[in-house]
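Exercise 7.
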Amino acid sequence: MTREHVRSAANGFLMLFLGFVGIALAIFSIVLGAQTASPLIVGGLLLLIASVITLGGLFIVNPNEARVLVLFGKYKGTVKANGFFWTNPFMTKKRVSLRARNLNGEKIKVNDKAGNPIQIAAVVVWQVEDTYKATFDVEHFDSYVVIQSEAAVRHLAGIYPYDTFEDGAEEKMTLRAGTERVSEELERELSERFSRAGIRVVEARLSHLAYAPEIAEAMLRRQQATAVVAARFQIVHGAVSMVEMALHQLAEKNVVTLDDERKAAMVSNLLVVLCSEHSAAPVVNAGTLYP
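Solution. The predicted structure, written as tokens, is:
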């Protein structure tokens, strides 16, 4: 049998009762045989041994647990029903938890796609789905989950850059900007890796993402510079639009007629006022428009 086989087991309470009855009969036979010097004492001893061995087949299956049954090295099935059961006392009954578990991965230092050192960690929620694979196909599935999770996170970090500072950055997939897609990709890869161990990934997300300390300050300055340039671009674009609208309305409504030189001066003054980081200090001309 090379896959999980869910099976049932005998009622434990009935076998417990029969075991106690057998022990009681064995004790009675031993006492009676000792008093009468009859062969009953041998039969009582054999019945006592058999009854005690029979009680060794009792086991309990708690909620969200399973018992993998192995008889002399051969897999005999898995009991997933909850309750008090009995099976062959010579069977090994290995307990396997079916509860969902959390793996809070350690922070690891890796290089992203751009070669920048980053610190990354993930939290994974997983549970055993196939008890046969978890028990026999891998060695210690708990350790397998930890090692494969770290390998998947390292591989994922090398596929995407932490961030991008190029034009059209919002269209490119990055670890910082594409959180949902990165989590989906991580979950997909973990599912492929865990399938060998019969483990299902319930959820997987990045729990920590940052530049490594040695480049964090430099990258912060780069991000700030990029933000300043982007802000300046928007300010200049808006200022040019406002100047263009002002000149157009002045000419359209014949408020004032300006030659090219004074238009250039007006444009220069308006751009300085609109693009400056400080409040403008206007100078009022009390004379004529032209000298």
